[in-house]
Design goal:
Elements (H helix, E strand, L loop, with lengths): L1 H50 L6 H7 L1
């Protein structure tokens, strides 16, 4: 009988366990999405810098075009 009570108690706590895991996963996914946005922004900034006439290699780029 005690084993059944233990199993019953464990089963009833599972939904809260899954809720905690889901919350942690969502926090990590939000972090990943924010990191991706930051990397995309940095990529855009780098692209603009490279295309700028002030970029050190701009003179070489203009010679090859």
């Amino acid at each position: 009988m005690k084993k059944i009570q233990e199993i019953s108690c464990l089963a009833s706590s599972m939904s809260s366990e899954f809720s905690l895991i889901t919350a942690k996963i969502n926090i990590h996914l939000d972090g990943i999405e924010n990191l991706q946005k930051s990397l995309t922004g940095l990529e855009d900034q780098l692209h603009e810098m490279i295309q700028s006439d002030d970029f050190p290699a701009a003179s070489r780029r203009q010679k090859t075009q």
